[in-house]
Design goal:
single chain; 194 residues; alpha+beta; 60s Ribosomal Protein L30, Chain: A; 4-stranded mixed β-sheet; 4 helices; 4 strands; 12% strand; elongated
Length: 194
């Protein structure tokens, strides 16, 4: 008997389940039928117009080419007349390194030329006569060269363009032993250097 009652129970549960399902489905189908029975609302097909074309960019005239700058040709290096450095030799009195008016005049000519020949470099050589010791004459020759260099610097010549050396009595202009020969050897000379 248990078997018969359990069958009945299964059938009853099945009927209840089916009725619930049918009831739920009926509502849904009714709703669907109602929606389906109604005429579809007229949907106005809104015809979208294509967007207007973007405005054309303003016509830009190309900038006129700038007028070419006038060609400035580099001035050719100014030809500087050569200078006679031997003619600018400075003479000194015995045991002296002060500059005479003639010496200053020669140094001013040299400075004027060096300002035009702005890359020229000069070495000032100091000399002495044979009277005195070698050491004393080397020191005297150095003082003579430095006095000329200092004067040139005072005239605006850069110190880097000037150098000095002393030869003392080693390089006489006149190898004689007379006062005339000795006076020629008390000098400062100028040599172009690279």
């Amino acid at each position: 008997m248990v078997k018969k009652s359990s069958w009945w129970l299964v059938i009853l549960v099945s009927i209840v389940a089916v009725s619930f399902l049918a009831a739920g489905c009926a509502k849904k189908s009714v709703v669907k039928e109602e929606v389906a029975g109604r005429p579809a609302p007229a949907v106005e097909a809104k015809k979208e117009e294509p967007p207007p074309p973007p405005p054309a960019p303003p016509k830009v005239e190309p900038a006129p080419e700038p007028a070419p700058a006038p060609k400035v040709e580099a001035a050719p290096p100014k030809a500087v007349e050569p200078i006679d450095l031997v003619g600018l030799r400075i003479q000194y009195a015995f045991d002296d390194y002060s500059l005479s008016s003639k010496a200053k005049e020669n140094l001013e000519k040299l400075a004027g030329w060096m300002k035009q020949a702005d890359t020229a470099k000069i070495q000032v050589e100091g000399h002495a006569c044979e009277i005195g010791t070698n050491e004393y004459n080397l020191a005297l020759g150095e003082r003579r060269a430095n006095s000329a260099k200092t004067y040139l610097e005072g005239l605006g010549i850069a110190a880097g363009r000037l150098s000095t050396i002393s030869y003392g009595e080693e390089r006489p202009l006149d190898p004689g032993h007379t006062e005339g020969a000795r006076s020629k050897n008390r000098r400062a000379e100028f040599v172009m250097i690279k």
